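Illustration 12: GH15 family glucan-1,4-alpha-glucosidase.
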Amino acid sequence: MTDKPIADYAVIGDTCTTALIARDGSLDWLCWPRHDGPAVFLALLDRERGGTCRLALDGLTEVTRRYLPGTNILETTFVTATGRAVLTDFMPLHPHEAVPEEGPDGHAQGRVVRRLACIAGRVSGHWFLRPTFDYARAPTEAVVASETQIRFHGGGDAIRAACAVPLTLREGAAEGGFALTSGARADLVIAHGAKHHGAESEDDAAGEGLTAEVDASLAATRAYWEAWSDRCTYEGPYRESVLRSALTLKLLTHGPSGGIVAAATAGLPEAVPGNRNYDYRYVWMRDASFTVTAFVNLGYDREAAEFLRFLREADTSRGRDLHLMYALKGPVPQEETLDHLRGWRGVAPVRIGNAAADQDQYDIYGEFLVALHGYLEAVEYDPPVKVNDHLPEALGHLTGHILRARHAPDHGLWEMRTEKRQSLHTKAMLWVGLDRAVQIARADPKHRLADAATIATWERAAAEIRAEYHARGWNPSRGAYTMAYGSDDLDAAVLRAALFDAFDPHDPRVAATLERVAAELGAGDLVYRYRIEDGLEGDEATFTACAFWRVGCLALAGRNAEAAALFERLLARGNDLGLFAEEIDARTGEQRGNLPQGFTHMAVINHAVRLAAARDGQTRTDEPDCRADAQTVPA
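Figure caption equivalent — predicted structure in token form:
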């Protein structure tokens, strides 16, 4: 069977984990109970060995789909030769009566609900359900609990299936046939764990009880998402795309911890053929700056605070022992390959865990300070006591790291598994970090966060770092700022550095660099990260976020019409639901890499906001704040 295009997939979730569902209704990816937990459905990476939950309809002729407005509830309409049916997929997330100051803002139910209703004529077909536990490494046992319920166990885990039509068990898979007339339903509920903790008994609802439970849960989940979307303060021309990106970032959050994973999946390839297949279901410090600014720019201050809560609890040293990345719970697993899986379209190896966790990437100190600065400005420097009490210590640790690392080589933004270098992007982010530390400290007139002498030390070091990377990062023979000191290699990361004011977009050298990046790393509207040997196999696709960074640089240079036109063309590169993976193949236009990719959706949000600011005559270089109640745009 030919694997589906990555763009065929939609995502649903409950802020604990996510599921990917293809255009044809096949649920092909789900990790339980967390984003980084073992997959129980992974036909996405191996259609023969990986578990799946498929819907097969007789005489299918047409498929359309959408998200219910302002929600992460997926609605797929199927037209057959004899009728029409609507499949509504969601993971129940019910509102709290009162949202706590910290922690999940909704109650996840640990279920996937698939509400199938015939709305015209008659439709027939069947459900097919076959989970595989621990990435299909553990044997699966199935037990019939009743005519409409089957339980599956394996690898110390369990799931339950309850259906509105009878289920039969055959070779470890459940099947449920149906023939529906208009108004009839064949709902299917898949739940995690051995028991239904919300019920009085161990058994799940069945028959009419299941239908009523599904309807109530759908109403509650829709109410949660609509209320969340109503808090979005962006009202610009790209609201639909911005809100979809915000909803996607919310799906990538982990409510219990406050963490936000980089992507929902593992092992989807960045190059076909190649071996660039990584696990992105972890929390990257680098994402902190754009994550917080993306949420703050839309009025979601609580989400920004929750991400900082995660960092506060994951790093109890308050910045002294800050790591490049974190798992949602415990250490990042060692990288391993799942050799029994063939990979998407046969592109192996499938990797879980991530060896980049052991790399030295010193830009993370600047990333953290950008995030902290953006959040503090959003709350007008009046954060909760848990944040406020530790600010002096955190500032001291983070700036101390910068001062010690300013002359050290590192692995750089792109995590290449080669020797360390004096990375230009890293040096620029070290300057950014000190700049934001100074702004944070100067916002406190009582000098509680840092005394005047300390602030002056940071300012002197920042000036020295900036002067150094401007001098040593410029390559006269290339006519551009390059990837590392003494390097001839171009690097699209310079676009990102310019967005943080590390480079003046009106500087002729910066303008020349942007032209060189467009000429040598560009592929039409798309942009490659770099074009050098990096020790990996295959030619990776273009990096989608880089193309959006170019939008920002054009806007900063005053080329607003050009920036807006490019932004709109890039938005059209998403799938039919507005979702983006990590990369786009320049030749075919196909999505590549893990899906959905948070970094890309952060870029969509921040550059829609940036274009709105530019349209209103504001020219800022940091991510602007266009919340409805904002009187000024923060630096």
